[in-house]
Specification:
- This protein is mainly beta.
- The chain contains four helices and 43 strands.
- Strands 5-4-7-9-41-38-37 form a seven-stranded antiparallel β-sheet. It has a four-stranded antiparallel β-sheet with strand order 22-21-24-26, with no helix packed on it.
Amino acid sequence: MTTRTRLATTIAAVAAFALLAPTTAHAATPTVPTKGIKVSLSQYPQLIDRPGTTHDVIRFTKVPNANWSITSADGTPTPVAFSGASTTTTVPVTTARTVTIAPVEATATATYVIAPGSPSAWAMATPTNGPAVTVAAVTTFVTWNDLPGDKDTVTLRRHDAIVWSVALPGKTAVEYDAERFGKKTELTFPAKSTITARAQDGYTVTTTTIGTPTVTADPTTTVKKTAIEAAATVGDNPYDATKGYGKGASVETVKIVGLNGVSWKIGGSTKPLKVKAGQTVYVPVDPDDIKDDKVEVTPSAERGYALAGDAPASLELDFADPDTVTPIRLTNAMVTKTDAPGAPYDTVRIAAERNVTWWMGQKDKKGKVKYTAMKPGRDGTILFKPRYDKDSFATSVFLKPIANRGYLINASGLTTELTFAVGTQPLTKASVFTTTTSSATLSAVPGVDAWSVKYSGKVGEKATNASATVKAADLTNRGIASVTFTGATATPTVTPKLTKGYALNAS
């Protein structure tokens, strides 16, 4: 009889278990996800159309996991390269070009597609040959601010032709072109900064030398006599015989142009008035402060400043009425009428005079003119947009200028009724948009305000419904003639929003 060892028994048991156990399956290959790439408006290509034809460029913004390409002059697609870690780049152009974006090649972790609802092709407008712009000297756009001690600053003003290079103390230089200024018209930096200037591409600047800083490290800054005398002058001086009294009466004002380190007292005021340097204000005068038609204005130096030794201790401004009052003359040259195809483009602009209130209006349904007092914008211009009644293609705007109390006007040379007419402008469907079974192309032409695009698409195997609203102004502002959406699984639906006065033909 054969005797089995404990080890042999264990091995046999394990083998038997292995035969009974189910076979282990091979691990499944992981599914690589498909991700959609969205292209936002800020990432659209932009044509920068500079004067002349040799410095026009298209600016590109890097889109993660996607590559840009641009057609060359012969129509061949050429990849757009970005330098290092830069997120923007430019490509010189002299003719209209087509720009496309495509996803990068699939990786081990993801496959990319342009997301439904995002465009993938742009036809850029043809660069124009604009007139040359020449700036004589950059010094006219530089203001040195001599503050007490070493806190002096320098103010640089924006201009399309000038690119400023500013290196703050101990820092790397940064360039500021007109676009980098954003909505600001000027930027201020420490006067110790290293500043240079050059002409923007396509422009000419005769002298780019910044000049010698006109600042000192003196603990006290002296304000010159000429600056004091020029800063405070007669502002409004209404004619006393017609200005009236009580609420709404016109009053005399002192015009103050702010100076660094100088405060002002008007008449018997005990509280100093501080005006920001370079800012202009009109300060009402208390009638009790007018003595023999004169008003005393007293400048005072703030801490760290001193008035020059020959500067007047006070200024005496003369508000006496002249023997003969000259009316404010209003002419058609002050009024700019734009009667453009399409109602929203019609405008009336008025270069407003001080001490004149412009009332503007249109007729209501009963034929009565409803006037509204208009307020000028910061630039002193009044903007009025005519209203058209429903189903109406003609309208009028009425002007009624009224002199403020204390003033006279002469409006004999002013046309007080401005007529506008909107004729029906036909647009062909093909000029506004085109579609195929897989794409939609929208063309920015006059008469189109926006488009609504709806279509079905896919991200990998996942079906999705996509929609987008595109404003024509967003395209034209970036120099884009048309934009194309691709990747639709059925013919997209496009609904254009037309400007009043335009109609879409069936063809």
